[in-house]
Amino acid sequence: MILPCLTIAPSPKGGRGVFTTINLKAGTVIEISPVLVLSKNERAIVEQTLLYNYIFEWGKTGKKAAIGLGYLSMYNHDYNANADYTMDFEHAIMTITTVKKIKKGEEIFINYNANPSDNTPIWFDAK
After folding, report:
1. How many CB atoms lie within 10 A of CB 19?
2. What is the Cα–Cα distance from 31 to 8, expressed in whole angstroms?
3. What pLDDT does 126 receive?
4. Cβ(21)–Cβ(7) under 8 Å?
5. Residue 96 lies in a domain
6. Are 89 and 22 in contact (CB under 8 A)?
7. Helix, strand, or coil here: 1?
8. What residues of the chain score a pLDDT lower than 70?
9. Count: domains in the chain
10. Within a domain: residue 51?
11. Can you say whether residue 81 is alpha, beta or left, with left for phi > 0 and alpha for psi between -120 and 50 degrees?
């Protein structure tokens, strides 16, 4: 399920991102999508490709990886994210929910640290 108000467009952060075409309230589920789960060995292979930047750590130990279907891998990172994601390991799905009001035309961001306000440097910001 992807709300029809979501669209992918060029992002000011570079590349593409996910935007809304309507105002969204905080607490709105905007996407529920399946993922393809990769084993630890498959993850090691994928991490040596362009897909490295698009996978999510997966499983209780974080040793597996998941490739998000739908728009999941298109949400850009922000330390002050306006949306959050949850992972359902049993059913191999992820849910994106807004955590703030988002105005029509704004980009929707998730924090790649899995917490909308976690400021721990992520791999492409680590110095």
Report:
1. 18
2. 13
3. 60
4. yes
5. yes
6. no
7. coil
8. 126-127
9. 1
10. yes
11. beta
Query: What confidence score (pLDDT) does residue 124 get?
Result: 74
What CA–CA distance (Å, rounded) separates 50 from 44?
12
Answer whether residue 48 is part of any domain.
yes
Q: Which residue has the tokens 């739908």?
A: 70
Largest CA distance in the chain: 42
CA distance 38 to 76: 22
Within-domain flag for 72: yes
- Provide the pLDDT for residue 64: 97
d(CA 119, CA 2): 28
- Residues 6+ away with beta carbon under 8 Å from 33: 1, 2, 68, 69, 70, 71, 72, 93, 94
What pTM did the predictor assign? 0.93
CATH number of the domain within which 89 lies: 2.170.270.10
Cα 79 to Cα 35, 56, 112, distances in angstroms: 24, 17, 8
Q: Whose structure tokens read 């998000």?
A: 68
Instruction: State the residue range of the domain holding 101.
Output: 6-110
